[in-house]
Amino acid sequence: MIKTIIKIFVTVVIFLLVLAGLFFLSVYTTHQPPEKIEDINIRYTQRPPYLLSVKPSYTAITWDFGFAAKGAGVDFYFENGETSIPPRDSVTQWIAGIKNQLTTMDSADFFLFQEIDRASKRSHNIDQRRIIDTLFPQHAHCFANNHAVSYIPFPLRQPYGAVSAGMETVSTTYPMESMRYAFEKTGNFFRKPFMKDLCYISNHYRLRNGKSLIIINVSNASLLQEAENKKLTQSIIALMVTEYEKGNYVLAGGNWGVTNFDSFLSNFLPSEWEICTDTTHPTTRSMSTPYHPDSTEVAITDFFIVSPNIHVSETKTIPLNFQHSPHNPVQITFTFN
Length: 337
What we know:
There is one protein chain. The chain is α+β, with helices and mostly antiparallel strands. 23% of the residues lie in helices and 30% in strands. The protein contains five helices and 16 strands. It has a seven-stranded mixed β-sheet with strand order 1-7-8-9-10-14-11, covered by helices on one side. A seven-stranded mixed β-sheet has the order 2-5-6-4-3-16-15, covered by helices on one side. Strands 12-13 form a two-stranded antiparallel ribbon. A hairpin with a 5-residue loop joins strand 8 and strand 9 (212-219). Helix 2 runs parallel beside helix 3 (128-135). 39% of the residues are buried. The mean pLDDT is 91.
């Protein structure tokens, strides 16, 4: 009897190990890492103009949606919380809040969005990119995937499941080109297939004076080690400096994933460049617990960096109290020197 039980137990263990091995093999063999530099398909419903219109000033907004799965009422498992999949009713409520806020921002010239889900279990497979398309039908849309995994088996009690997500730059002007720049993927052998394919988007817009405005959309992961994040940021700054030296205007914004940004950037950002933040309001919150205004840790990780030939007249964080997203939008108003 005991021998039979042991035999059954060993058989079950071997079967489960084989299944696990086949699963990891399928993940490794089906994941195709992106090219270092790729063209992004520029989508539109009504084609915008090719030249940036002449205006007294321009507005750019960056906003990390947090996949509409990290509203004020939840924590997040992968950031020391417990929740991996929030209730569908909560997700639809957060998406509705994001939509309502975006309708008040429709006069902006450029939008830099991060953490947008297309078909992910965590946000109940609601296509958030399609929602953005509907809200801005007269804009150019440039979307880059940065996380596509058929199944994430963690946490075991409520697996994260399938993920398809990315970031998007939306503009009132049609870009001359939109490029996806990939970062080298980090992580150990077992974690790497499940992690993000970090990247940034670089758009070129033609001005009437023959120069270009370079808009870079940044989405660095806050969970990276500082050394890794520094390497990613250095590559972005290097491209910005190269474009500025060509005589172009350069602006980069998004979630940079660092809180000590002044000291972090001091070693490789040229001194004449400007870091644009609004220190009166935080832009992100800790996800280790649901949001509580009096106790939750907050910080500034979302900001813009502009070249010396751009003058920023105003930088403001829009304080939404993290009701619909773990980040607050940041807006700058700028002109060309």
